[in-house]
Amino acid sequence: MPCMLLGLALLGGWTLHQLCHWNIFRVTELRLEGAHTLSEGQVLGLGGLEQGLNLVTLNTRRIERQIATHPWVAGVQVKRQWPSGVLVELHEYVPFALLNQVHPGGGSQLSYIDYDGHVIAEVPEGGGLDYPVINGAGPDDIADGRLVTGGAAERALQILHLAARGNALLPLQSVSEVYIGTKKDFTLYLAEHPFPIHFGRDHLEHKFNELLHVLKQLYDSGDIGRTTVLEMGYGDDVNKMLCRSAQSK
Predict the structure, then answer these.
(1) What's the rounded Cα separation, in Å, for the pair 135 and 178?
(2) How does pLDDT run across 53-68, given as a tens digit for each residue?
(3) What whole-number distance in Å separates Cα of residue 105 and Cα of residue 118?
(4) What is the mean pLDDT of residues 135-159?
(5) Which of 53, 69, 139, 148 is deepest in the core (most CB within 10 A)?
(6) Rounded to two decimals, what is the model's pTM?
(7) How many CA atoms lie within 13 A of 24 on its CB side?
């Protein structure tokens, strides 16, 4: 029995050695699916993938770990496609908004964040800026690469989630900025209208729904162009709204 096992091991080793030298298993086709931000060259370069590698000895797990080091990669799977192909299935983070984080010593850092509050990567020079901005986030708003649950920046993101529900009066693309004040209160700015919309700190969904009613009235009456400020709840009463116009004294 020991001799038989030794013989099988030697036969298996010899077979593997032969397979590693067969040209039919040399990689001739590399395919990438799911890439939107990263280029094919970036992904294949990270994984060390190139034509001529042997498909039999390809370490797919190691290649996946290498590709996953890129900040835009949310998930990756490398698959052998016999006899000579490799498929890389990539899942990238999708930017939902921009986060402007203010540093205590001065200066700020602008980063992409996704819908769930994951901080993807810093915005490079010339990077896309066509997203709403959460402005005024502090160092205590981020931990382990994502917005802290219940923190000011995460709650500002909730306002953007409300806008993303698709109401025609206030769609996400109409939001320019959610500003976090020094008292952790929120001010919403629209892209087409310069007046601030003050939300305070609490009852954000209720105030957002009331804002939709107020905006409809302003659009219907034609007063939207004369509005200078909206207060969504004041005097400790969430149901009190204040609308000032340029004609107000």
Answers:
(1) 6
(2) 999 999 999 999 999 9
(3) 24
(4) 96
(5) 53
(6) 0.85
(7) 4
